[in-house]
Amino acid sequence: MLSLKLFIEAVHNAIVIANQTLSDKSEDFLLKYFTQDPQNSTKLLPKTVTLDYPSLTASGDVINTDVKVPLITLVPMTNTQIEKATFTFEFEVEEVNGELQMHFIKSGRFFHKKTKTKPSKVEIVITPQQSPEGVKLLVEGYERMLKRQFS
Q1: Fewer Cβ neighbours under 10 Å: the N or C end of the chain?
Q2: Residue 110's pLDDT is what?
Q3: Whether the Cβ atoms of residue 121 and residue 104 lie closer than 8 Å to each other
Q4: Mean of the pLDDT values across residues 114-123?
C-alpha cells in the first residue's frame, strides 16, 4: 500500500524538478551566446564573429566589409522542453486509519484478489510552455541589426 497523498506529492515534485531543469537550460543557452561585460557584471555582451563580406560600390567595384555577426543569429533556435508526458495507471483506493491508501492493479493477472473497492484510473498529462517571448524578441533584434550592416 502507498499513501495516495505521498504519491501525488511525488508526481508534483517530479514536475517541479523537470520545470527547473528546463529553466536551467534556458540560462545555459544565454551563457553559450553571451559573455559578461568586464566593466559591468550585470550586463551581457553578445558573442560575435567578424565575417569578411563582399559588397558592391556605386562604381560597381567589389569591396570587402567586416560584418560583426552575433552567434545567436547563426544557430537554429531549439528549445529543450517536455513535449508531452502522459502517466496512466490503474489503482485501487481504500481508507486505512483515516488516510487514503492506494495500490496499483497489475494488468493481466488471472487470479486478482477481490477487494471492496472499484478500480480507479488516472491520467496525468504534462504539456510544455512556449519559449519566452523575450528570447524571440532578442534574437529578432540582433537579426535586424545584422541586416542593417549589409545595407
Answers
A1: C
A2: 45
A3: no
A4: 62
